[in-house]
Amino acid sequence: MNGVPVTAIGSPLTLGPARLRNRLVSAPMERNYCEIDGTVTDRYVAYLSRRARGGAALVFSEASYVRGDGKGRLRQMGVDTDARIPGLARLAAAVRAEGALFGVELNHGGRTAQGAVSGFRPVAPSPVPCLPAGGELPLELATEEVYDLVEAYGAAAGRCREAGVDVLSIHGAHGYLVHQFLSPARNLRTDEFADPARFLDLVVEAVRERAGRDVAVGLRISAFEGFDGGLSAERTFELISGARLDLLDFLDVSAGSYEAGQWIIQPGEWERGLLAPYAEPYRALGLPVGVAGRISTPESAEAIVAGGRADFVSMARTLHADPDFPRRVLAGEPYRPCIACNYCIDRLGSGEPIPCSVNPQAGREHLGPPGAPAEKASVLVIGAGPAGLETARLLAGHGHRVRVLERAEHVGGRFALAAGLHDHPEYRRILEWCAAELDRLGVTVSTGTPVAGETLSRHDVDALVLATGGECHRPDLPGIGLPHVIDVRDWLARGEPAPASCVVWGADREGVAVAGRLASDGSRVLLIGAQPELAPDVGRRAKILSVPRLLANPEVRVLLESAVVAVEPDRLLVRTGGREEWVPASGPLLVSQGVVPRTGLLAACRAREPRLGVYVVGDAGGGGSLYDCFVTAEAVTRSIAEALAGGALPAGGPAATF
Ligand SMILES: Cc1cc2nc3c(=O)[nH]c(=O)nc-3n(C[C@H](O)[C@H](O)[C@H](O)COP(=O)(O)O)c2cc1C
Ligand code: SF4
Question: Where is the NADH:flavin oxidoreductase/NADH oxidase N-terminal domain (predicted)?
Fold first, then answer.
């Protein structure tokens, strides 16, 4: 992860009037960090200023609505009225104070904006609803109303200029309004705006006029829409080649549309920097070109810029996970990797500020990280899954003496099993990073070292952290003890070849992932789930490839809203909607029915009465997600720091569960 030669991405770049200190750009990213009226918050200022401090050359806020009916998220940033100017000015000043330039992306959601969020009926080139956004039928804009919208883009550009914004990007990508006018599937008009480029040209002219020549103005595009009947790469290139490029300072190439969201925020299964070949042709148009899309390592960024495929790289998740990525990679240092789990984007629809699975500080920069106490303590962490590793890392970073004991022969717990599935090729990176950081911090991680209640007394420590994970839950029903019934995680751990056929009982995250793995390895799979949908515990984007792939496999049969009520060697009694039926079922029965915290050591830990307390983290504390692991790790570190500073021990007495 370090020591990569990064000559090209470290060199400056000029985008019209803007001079970038390097080629690493913090891409526009909606975050739900604003007030509901679109005003900037302290949280937002701290978040962006942190990205600027981390070394990015240009820090974008997000797709910001130029008019209220174009708002797509509850806490999206607005540039719709003059009341937003002071907030924008705060952002600009904070980002510039850290040596970066500040950018705003001008947007209108068109058919993707929904009345339930914006309070307005959506408007669009044509009345084509957007199902992934909610499916509300938009009103077709009258010709004069299109001109009003052009004016709204111009007015928003003027506000940004007044606030001291350095760079404006017109959002012409991802299926929003400008893209809707460009698209043959979304623009069915017969007036002058039937010309797909007309709206874009007018918007570019209006924005340039109001931005003046001191503000860089660029255009973000989707290289293709990604669904049948949408814009192809060839047609998009043709349209953009004929646009008012003379008024622009750069192009930023992305991809996809709402109906092909996997191209907007690419899954971890897809290769890093996959959009670079689509960006390269645009360089022939004579403007500096940026590109986004899983550029999550210095190697991929450097290859793109040094290889002449783009002039700069736009990174969203990479810098969400580690704001210091630019500074660190330019100095040849390790960085915290984004694992492309898409938890961030899947939380966007909730209306709450978006988190990051691997960076508990993301969106909480305004609160600051836990301060290191003056006094140092000794801490024993039992268990080396993500929660144990991260707790140990943070505590060691505070200078505490930390030891980690793990009963298995390897670190990572059940997360390491998930990391072995082809859906999640990037997961292993966070475990590798944690382990490398512990090594760097001099923390001993002893694997193959089970801890028993009796042996705890050998460890004279100030605090104990129980990170022992969980066990698969096995419902009590006839036949559950038969030898072919195996917990899904135990089966994964065995690493056996795929059987000819099998049943997966439980269509949660693990059940669906394992069914997918077995099906792609050639098993005939019967998947039985209690809920009406597959993997209800997983967000839409995180399963955007895996669930359709599973359903398209003819060797996979899915029974939803069903429960197994009895097991026999070659058949199962399955209850669906009050009816019970014996279903033939050969091969192993893999059970994925949730996790029960493994807390057998808790009483013994408590009995030790360490002066700074006992803490239970991750699955052992009922946590579950990777995000929970990282957040609870930080909470432990904070509590221990507070306890050392003379504060009270966490509520709940000497043992606290995070
Ligand atoms: C949570 C989230 C919000 C996003 N919001 C925006 C946005 O407001 N405007 C935009 O042009 N792209 C947006 N994107 C797309 C990113 O800018 C970027 O193109 C994409 O995530 C691929 O880059 P990455 O692999 O570095 O994340 C968003 C991505 C994420 C993950
Ligand atoms: S939540 Fe997941 S995808 Fe999003 S930035 Fe963090 S690690 Fe990356």
Answer: 11-332
Instruction: Kindly tell me if the per-residue pLDDT of 357 is higher than 80.
Output: yes
Please say which residue of 575, 593, 611 terminates a domain: 593
Q: Are residues 458 and 509 in the same domain?
A: no
Asked if 260 and 396 sit in the same domain, the reply is no
Mapped onto helix, strand or coil, the DSSP state of residue 379 is: strand
- Ligand 1 neighbourhood includes 28 CB (under 6 angstroms): yes
Q: How many domains does the chain have?
A: 3
Kindly compute the dihedral angle of the four CA atoms of residues 537, 538, 540, 543, in this order, to the nearest 10 degrees.
Answer: -140
Q: How confident is the model at residue 44 (pLDDT cuts 50, 70, 90)?
A: very high
CA dihedral 446, 449, 454, 456 (to 10 degrees): 10
Is this model's pTM higher than 0.85 or not? yes
Residue 517 is part of a domain; what is its CATH number?
Answer: 3.50.50.60
Closest ligand 2 atom number to CA of residue 362: 6
What is the C-alpha to C-alpha distance for residues 204 and 500, in angstroms, rounded to an integer?
A: 59
Overall average pLDDT of the 205-211 stretch: 98
The domain in which residue 387 lies consists of 378-471+596-645
Closest CA to 124 of 188, 54, 195: 188
Q: Is residue 2 part of a domain?
A: no
Average pLDDT, the chain: 94
The domain spanning residue 160 has which CATH number? 3.20.20.70
Give the mutation target among 272, 295, 356 for probing the ligand 2 site: most ligand atoms within 8 A of CB: 356
Which numbered ligand comes closest to the C-alpha of 340? 2
Instruction: From 342, 357, 431, give the residue whose CB has the most ligand 2 atoms within 8 Å, as the site to mutate.
Output: 357
Query: pLDDT, tens digit, for every residue of 287-328?
Result: 999 999 999 999 999 999 999 999 999 999 999 999 999 999
